[in-house]
Design brief:
The complex is a heterodimer of chains A (241) and B (222). Chain A has helices at 2-22, 30-64, 67-82, 85-95, 105-130, 134-142, 147-177, 189-200, 203-240. Chain A is 83% helix and 0% strand. Chain A has 9 helices and no strands. Chain A is mostly helical. Chain B is an all-alpha fold and 222 residues long. Chain B has one domain (7-221): MetI-like fold. In chain B, helix 1 packs across helix 8 (188-221) and helix 2 packs across helix 4 (89-114). Chain B starts with 6 loop residues before the first helix and ends with a helix. The chains are: A mainly alpha (241), B mainly alpha (222). The interface between A and B is large, with 40 and 37 residues.
């Protein structure tokens, strides 16, 4: 399966490259778009890392924390899942400085996207952890493991395998959400598209290429996650044998 | 001057925001209506026996699902006029929302359609029903109710994406809040109020969906 997708990916990239190379006029705006794509990738990676960390912290706090921490985690998850990502972005960008916290736009972008997707991820992590059979907990108790050790060494490794596919979806959601940061003055792909559009008026080409760029980044994420999924599944299979 | 929260200002802007929230709700409902219809169409096209129909449909769904909504809004708003299709900002926005979530809804419908036992199709053929009647009278009434909760989740998701319409200057909640903020140099109150509005409405809708789910489960059990 990944092989087929990789091939499709390569063909798409190759054709896109061919099309681009055949139009000299593209040189006017292509470097700008590539620069923007780099920023988009940067924010996506930063956001993904933060999202995974936040998701694990929030999920474990919600499931096993003492009540104040549990409530805090629930509040975090509900607030970030219940409000719009754009509103969160604007809130961190416009309102935080009012309280004396001045962050640069890139930090705000990574922070918002990471926190937003992390809230969704927390539910994914929670679902995966609670889907591990009860017998595993009981066996850990029988082996005289503490709850923390059992969670760390027995439960989470099994849960991780199950949560890889939904995380792939969330990472693509995060990639797509990075286009929002163009609205808080970060020169990502979407911002560059608008900028180039305003200066060159080659609307059709620019927005079409930008769509293809996003598709290409998304396919890379899909392929990477599929590979990871297969690796992880193999590891489990070996463990059982 | 540097009050953390200005109640006088809050009461002043509340009616303006309440009026703008009507536009947000309008965009949500129109967009979701379009998404639900378009999604069903895509799901049925994707089931087509001809590869010439099903493969391009699947490709279209994948493409729309893996590119950002914001760019799609820009595409419809800025690129369509190049081909002579001039749309107002609101129409372009609703169209983009409908198309984007239509592809998500099509996946939901697809799972609903896939759960219909083959015998239902065969019985329809045995009764000599046309494809139209098979879908309208046999398949759709069985396929849709179980997927209503999943569709409801996309209603909430679509609702939370409506602030993106502010990027093409639709005067919905977010755009109004931004204008209020820039007029009064206070962003705290308008943007926080918008956040609260979204939180409250999402929670209410989510509760409503759970109620519908509960009701459907009970009905199914009888």
């Amino acid at each position: 399966m990944p092989l087929r997708q990789l091939t499709v990916c390569a063909i798409v990239a190759f054709t896109a490259g061919l099309v681009v190379a055949s139009f000299a006029t593209f040189r006017v705006f292509l470097p700008g778009l590539l620069e923007g794509a780099l920023v988009t990738v940067e924010i996506t990676i930063g956001g993904c890392v933060l999202a995974v960390v936040m998701a694990f912290v929030a999920a474990i706090a919600k499931m096993y924390g003492p009540w104040p921490i549990r409530w805090l985690a629930v509040a975090y998850i509900e607030v970030f899942r219940g409000t719009s990502a754009l509103v969160q972005l604007f809130w961190l960008f416009f309102v935080l400085p009012h309280f004396g916290i001045l962050l640069d736009p890139l930090t705000v972008a990574i922070l918002t996207l990471g926190l937003n997707v992390g809230a969704y991820g927390a539910e994914v992590v929670r679902g995966a952890i609670s889907s591990v059979q009860r017998g595993q907990w009981e066996a850990s108790t029988a082996l005289n493991m503490t709850r923390m050790t059992a969670l760390r060494r027995i439960i989470i490794p099994q849960a991780i395998v199950r949560m890889i596919p939904p995380w792939g979806n969330l990472f693509i959601e995060l990639l797509k959400a990075t286009s929002l940061v163009s609205l808080i003055t970060i020169s990502d792909l979407a911002f560059k598209a608008q900028q180039m559009n305003a200066t060159t008026f080659r609307t059709v080409e620019i927005f079409s290429i930008v769509l293809v760029f996003y598709l290409a980044i998304a396919s890379v994420i899909t392929v990477a996650m599929r590979t990871l999924e297969e690796r992880a599944a193999r590891g489990i299979a070996r463990g059982r044998a | 001057m540097t009050k953390l929260w200005d109640w006088g200002y809050t009461w002043e802007i509340l009616p303006v925001l309440a009026k703008a929230s009507i536009v947000t709700i309008e965009a949500t409902f129109l967009g979701f209506l379009l998404a639900a219809t378009f999604g069903l169409l895509l799901a049925i096209l994707r089931m087509s026996k001809s590869n010439w129909v099903s493969v391009p449909t699947a490709g279209f769904v994948e493409f729309v699902r893996s590119t950002p909504l914001l760019i799609q809004i820009f595409f419809i708003f800025f690129v369509f006029p190049e081909f002579g299709v001039n749309l107002s900002a609101m129409t372009a926005g609703v169209l983009a929302l409908g198309l984007h979530y239509g592809t998500y809804c099509s996946e939901v419908y697809r799972s609903g359609l896939a759960n219909i036992p083959r015998g239902q199709w065969e019985a329809s053929t045995a009764l000599n029903l046309s494809p139209y009647h098979t879908f309208r009278d046999i398949i759709i009434p069985q396929a849709i109710p179980p997927v209503v909760p999943a569709l409801g989740n996309y209603l909430v998701a679509l609702f939370k994406e409506t602030p993106l319409l502010s990027a093409i200057a639709v005067l919905e909640l977010m755009q109004t809040a931004k204008i209020l903020g820039s007029e009064n140099f206070r962003y705290t109150e308008p943007i926080t109020l918008v956040g609260v509005f979204f939180l409250v409405f999402s929670l209410i809708t989510a509760a409503g969906i759970r109620q519908v789910e509960h009701w459907l489960n009970r009905r199914g059990g009888n």
